[in-house]
Queue: 3 jobs
Job 1
Amino acid sequence: MSVNAVVENGKILDTKAQAEEAKKNAAAANQGYDKNAFMNILCAQMKYQDPLEPTSNTEYINQYATFTQVEQLSNMAEAFTMSRASDLVGKTVIVTDENGTQVQGKVDYVTYKSGEAYLNIEGKDYKMEDVSSVADSHFVEIHDQADDLAEMMDKFPAYENMVYTDAQKVYEAYSFYKNMDSDAVALLDKKDIDTLEKYYKRAVELVQEATKNQEEYEAKKKAEEEAKAAKLTEDQDEGTDVEAAEIEPEE
């Protein structure tokens, strides 16, 4: 018959209950049987084992081997997480914050706290596990270009109401379009491209008309100024002739 109790300071200790409690505490503290939990269990087992039927050395070796495997797996998992997190630097991701709101941004750098990887996006840290989507930076860039052009075109007036002062906005949008990435252009609807070309053509016409009107105005103004100058000169010449006629030398 085995003895299942230990006497300490004149009191009988329930070693099984204490061992089970130690196991539960270790599991609760670590939310799973990681290397710390295994070490706590092993220590508790050694402390509260039955002195008349101690655990064999072979069993301890097997448990230690298991502990070593768990530690190695834990280290591998941590290294894998760190590697995955590092690969996200410079990429655009979508994460869910503590309020359940989705945040999109580019990962500036990665930090590691208590074995967890945190992605820094615009100065704020987010857990690696909260990442829901990862997008290639080029993919995000070309979509942003397409969105920016659409925003510019939304500010165009009705085509029939276009005036000279609207030409600048159309020129800016058209210049942006011409400098867009070819992949971004491929995202555009042909109808939108045709609309932009139509507006640009009209803007060129308005600028040409305005330039022509300005040239005509300046030419007319110059002609008027020259006529005034000629008239003034003529008047001055006539005045000189009159003065010369009034002043006759005495005979």
Note: The two ends are 172 Å apart (CA to CA).
Job 2
Amino acid sequence: MIASSKENIVISCFDLTGNMVKPWAEAGFTCYCVDLQHPQGETRQGNIIHVGADMRDWLPPFRPIRFAAFFPPCTDVAVSGARWFRDKGLFALFQSIRLFYVSIRIAEWTHAPYLIENPVSVVSTYWRKPDFTFRPCDYAGYPGGENDLYTKKTCLWTGGGFIMPPTKRLEPVQGSRMHLLPPSEDRASLRSATPMGFARAVFEANRPDRRMA
């Protein structure tokens, strides 16, 4: 245990799987995973609290927040789906940009190291270029990353002193695995799940005791 759970909070928003916070929870942090797909209200499993809420209405606990992550829906802003933009209409684009803005607002409010994750998207046009990009295979050498041997270019907008972790790249023998997923109800959730190697790397680089060392 490297933290007092009452004084050390991590939030991860638009997060169904909870992959990003698992290393933090194991280290004793109280972690809030907020997503509309969770059961309404709060459901606790160990140090992870699943919150079923709309991010446009939810506010983080008024206690010190040590790290924050945001994964706003990307379906209507990802460049990979650009050929469908006209069919979706302006409202879909507006809703996606609005949720990205909600992420920025809460992230800056926390004064904590944070990341906002999206694939290559029109956010770069409407806001600014990402601070970092990575592929899951770049962090597959970290514990838990054994199945992250694929290439899905991901963008990060960061702040609050976020430290991008050093890579431990393994050969992407699975190629563009996420693009090959068959159509299903949970396809979007599978595509957006945080690679565990990257989650571990971010924790190791940004945990408070490492940052103060």
Note: Confidence is low (pLDDT under 50) at residues 76-85, 186-190.
Job 3
Amino acid sequence: MNTNQITLANPRRTRLADRADVARLTAVPSPRTDLVTRLATVPGLVRPGIAHWDMKTRLPLQPLSNENAYGDPRLLHDLAEPGATFAHQLDVDVIVGAETGGIPLATAVALAGDLPFAFVRKPGYVGHEDHEPRVRGASVTGRRVLLVDDAVSSGTALEAFADELQSEGAILVGVFTLVDMRDVATSVAPIAKTLPIESIATYLDVLTAATDHGILDPATHRLAVDALVNHWPDKDPRWTLLPQAA
């Protein structure tokens, strides 16, 4: 395949010829554009440089530091408002934050929507009590809940949190997240294909906005998107180009 062509890792595998195509397919509806820009330009949220996820998967960029967006109270409030709107559309009873990155955002969503708040522990959490509840805060038993997290990717973490909520009798009706990373996932769990998911931006949206505002060099952006959506193997010679582009 020509190195200027990119194939999105999604069920329909769309071929991209140049950056104009990337911009077209990652375009954000105008009412959300300003919010995406504010998120993408949070200091330290997007960082160039090759990294590894869980000491295994090679990445062309540092993992997003989504928690940096929580440092600005006005931005956190504004990021939460679409979540509150989504919650009311789904007739949600309780907002549930996923430990740990989803808890601050979920708290803001609950406040913006005037809804009860709870948080769900990470699967496998061992507390100080013999039978410590998996969910703390408002009761979720028999109630419609919106799970809030900072990101969703393959959906494996979502499946695990859904199991924890189900064990407490909750009815999970949707997910709200800052960044939807399914556009670069190698595979997506069934729950992440069928459950309603609302996000501020996709991962490619964030990278495009960061590039447009000078945080990423255009050459770094082009190479990073190629590596992410085509899942370069570790031996791909183009990895050596990333430090030069950065």
Note: The CA atoms of residues 98 and 149 lie 5 Å apart.
